[in-house]
Amino acid sequence: MRIVALVPAHNEAGKVGRTVQALTETGIADRIIVIDDASSDATPAEAAAAGVEVVSLDKNAGKGGAIKRGLAAAEPYDIVMFIDADVAETASEAVKLLEPVRAGRADMAVALLRRQPGTGGFGFALGLARWLIKRLGRFEALAPLSGQRALTRAAVEAAIPLSTDYGLETAMTIDVLRAGLRVAEVPAEFTHSYTYRDAAGFRHRGRQFLDILKVLFRWPRAVNYRGRKIPNAAGVVFGAVSLAASAYWLFAGALEQSPAGRIATALFILTIVLCGLGLWDDTRGHDQAKGFRGHLRALLKGKITTGLVKAIGGGLISIWAAWYVISRPPSVELILDGLLIALAVNTFNLLDLRPGRALKWFAVAMLAVFIISSAKSVWNVPALWLLLAVAAAIFPFDLRAKGMLGDAGANVLGGLVGLMCVAGLSPGPRIAAGLIFLLLNVTSERWSFTKIIESVPPLRWFDELGRPRSSRQNP
User: Is pTM, for the whole model, over 0.85?
Assistant: First the structure.
């Protein structure tokens, strides 16, 4: 069993040498690696003088970034320990952390430290971290912010990608628990640098609180096209803003009987259903059925997939939205309008497979619909414009693969495009839009959108426009 100790260090001269010396004397680690996080003092020289490996970063990456670099250097390993560089001689307490992990009683052991009188703040950051771990991980954590840890390889893999800010420990604990692994808190006598109730301490804890709060946006998560787990809560945020904006406009009663008022109402109901169905599919849809034919084949085998439920539910709410916006009696035309919205929803689901792709084509589609719209008054919906502003705000994160819309967000994009086609286009352009979405859906049953885009230079250029170079290559 190969054990590696990682010691992230930033400007810890005077302590890092004592820390690694104490670790060395325990004899518990096969390797000890100090990750110098762009220190401006003698930290790397002191660590090297203590006889351990030193990996130096060119610029400060934060504790999470330093640990990420250290994990790459630590290969191969079975158990890894994270030990702060400022614990000095108390680093010998790492023996207590290693014992339950090596014995197979825990996948991650966390040091439970004794509270030092006069240190710390008022417990807001600590309380938030505890609440998040209990809410998302179903675990009563006494030491949610403790940085001294021992993890199995399985626990490390569950926690990747690591948070790079002060939310690191909280996110790590939740990830490990949500993967079904075991966490144990182990009493230990580590001591380290403390913050106090002064200006510097309050600034530190304020930033810590905000970073821990951001941990909320790590879930739900999905594996993207490069095999990386990234948050797909951006779609939930998108849907929530749509709900809030359209609900305000709706309940304010400003345009209840006008065309714009009907659009606000339809947008409100569409968002509830489409975002809800998408979120359910994002979090529960683990079936492998692909495409409409795949869902039908699964049904013939007696299996009802989340995708099929989403398709049926989305189709019904699309027909309702078309009826409500146009206010016409049931007819073949009404069914076709409902089908247009449903096909638009599915099209944008299919587009949300590469960073920024769905939002780029959403912008193109909405601009085209606005230009050829025969009823400009239907665009007089503040909720609609707020939603467009939120889409623009989310775009940079989606483009850089820092977040993903997921079905929850892509559903709302497609629903909005389809809704504005039905509300704003005359019959001829509306039929043309429906045929375009039908063609795209039929094409997707046989060919991959990604392969088509990559084979057509203008489409490939537009698809890669603005995307970081590191995100352009296929895995």
Answer: no
